[in-house]
Amino acid sequence: MLGKFAREAAVALLRFSKTTSDPNLAAALIDKAADIKDRDDSLQKIDKSPRPPDVQP
Length: 57
Fold this sequence. Notes:
Layout (H helix, E strand, L loop, with lengths): L1 H18 L3 H22 L13
């Protein structure tokens, strides 16, 4: 569910950056959206598959 939330937050920031006339604010919003996307991508790369049980000889 974090992926959907992060994606929606990034989209909202990008939309808001298009409506502002302040270039510094627009740049800050775009940077924040990129940070959210990068953080979400790094979370998706974690292997969450089940591990086999330890086998003792």
